[in-house]
Each structure stands twice: as C-alpha cells, then as structure tokens.
Amino acid sequence: MATKGTIQLPYFFVAYRYRCRYWYRYTVKPLPMKTRFIVLIDFSSYSKFELQLAKHWADSMAADVLLLHEPVVMAPALTDASTRNEIIGYETDKALNKLKAFTMQHLPDTRRISYRVAEDSLIISLQRLLSEYYYNVIFVGLKGTGFLKRIFMGSTAISVIDETNDVVVAVPRHSFNMSPDTLYISVYYKYRLNTAELDKVLQLFGDKIKHIRFLSVVAKKDSMKQTMGYLEELRKMYHGERDAHIEAFEGEDAFYTLKQYMNAHADGMLVVQKGSRSFTNQVFRRFLINELVYDASVPLIVLPQESGQV
C-alpha cells in the first residue's frame, strides 16, 4: 500500500522498469575507451627504453602514445609577470622541440605519437591528462636510487604510483623482454587482488600472454592454508584461456624472494598492486613496491588500488 504523499505505480510498470534495469546491466556495456600510453620523458638514457617499449606495445595494442616532459624553468625571482611568461613560453617551445627530436632519434616511426610539455608540476599535469576520457597506462623509468637520495629527493616513479590510481608500467634501467608471454602476479591473501584492473591489462595483451603465475611470499605470521586457498581461487578464476599456475614461498623478505625469482624468469613481467599504506617514510619502514622501484632491476606493472579498499 502506498503511503501518504506517494504514487502507487501499476505492477506491470514496476516489473518492466526492473526488467529494463537488469537488461541494461548485463547486456549493454559502456562504449570502450581509447587506450593511451602516457610516457614520462626526462631525456635520460633510461627514457629510450620507456619510449621503445611504449611504442612496441602501442603498435600491437592499437594504442596512442603521449609523451610528457616537465621542463626546468629558471626565472629570476624579481622578474615581472610578462617577462616570466615569456621565459616560460621560450622554455616550453624549446622542450617541445627537444622532445620531438628525441623521439625521431630513437624511433623509426613516430605516427600516433603526440607531445605535451607540463605547464604545471609533473603530477598536476599528469592528473589533468588522466581525467580525460581514455584508458590510460603510465610509463615511467626506473633509475635506481641511493639511500640518501631516497630520503632527500625521493623517486618520480614512487610519486606517480602514490599520486595516481591508474596502471603504471615501470621500466628498468636495462633492456628486457619487450614481448612477455608470462605475467607473474604477486598477491597477498589479506589484500584482495584488483581483478577488474588485471582483466583490463590482460585484455590489452590479448593472446600474447600465454601463462599466468600467481605468487605469494608467506611469512611466519601468515597462514599457509589461507594463502594456498586464495591462490587456488585465483587459479580457477583465470585458468582456461591461459595457463594459470600458483606458487608460494616461505620467507620474511618478500622483496628479496621476488627479485631472486624474477631474475630466474626473464620471460615475463612482475605484476604488483598498489597498497593502501603510505609510500613515504622510507627510513623507518620498507614496502615491497618501494624496494622494487628503488632496486630498478625488475620490470613492473603496478595495478591501482581497488576502490573501497582501505
């Protein structure tokens, strides 16, 4: 019975409305976004590997490539606004020309590549680009960082991972297999894998990924039974189109264990997931992704945190 002030709709209308909602949810998919690789370029020797990897993947994944560079603008503190804007404009044009020349130097084909010079800080410019209607994947170089530099300067890769919630491909300082056929996915039973984002990554690679390996490092405080249960759950979920296997290792140092494992498996890339914990304060705590980034020897795909996780 309708309460006072409401309108009682006929039953057939209500049933039709819910039927339409069900049909829309399970049969109509949103229009697919265009895929875009945003490659952070600083003209170091490592940028060449980022550029070549992004272009190699883009050619096979029908993705666009956007190169983003943050110039260093030196303007006297007492410069008036007009002069300062003139200096910024000059440095921006110079950086754009350098970006194009760098690309032509390292790539034989520059089609489907666009260029952007950051007008604000790198992170602000990147966040602005990520708000555009694309499925964005960020490429950033891993240079390796000494202990003192970690404390005083940090890492661009860590900042990008920390300040964005998109897939990040972290490219190491040495050459590696640009056409991996295996993804090694590090998981933890207490922190659910973002399977929605993993599915998008797998869709990008298509049939190029033949094998998936779900890995867990089990410390003394962890439950091996629960670890194996979660690994088996993931194996069943993904086995079929691809060969899916699971492996668990006992150890207290996840970084060292995974690094040693990946050194022996150069056929693929390591997939890790951004956590909800802080990525800073490196003096007192060590986190897996930070150590992998600072070590700069393993190619990484970093999945964003699943919405709703804390």
From TrEMBL:
Protein name: Nucleotide-binding universal stress protein, UspA family
Organism the protein comes from: Pontibacter lucknowensis
Taxonomic classification: Bacteria, Pseudomonadati, Bacteroidota, Cytophagia, Cytophagales
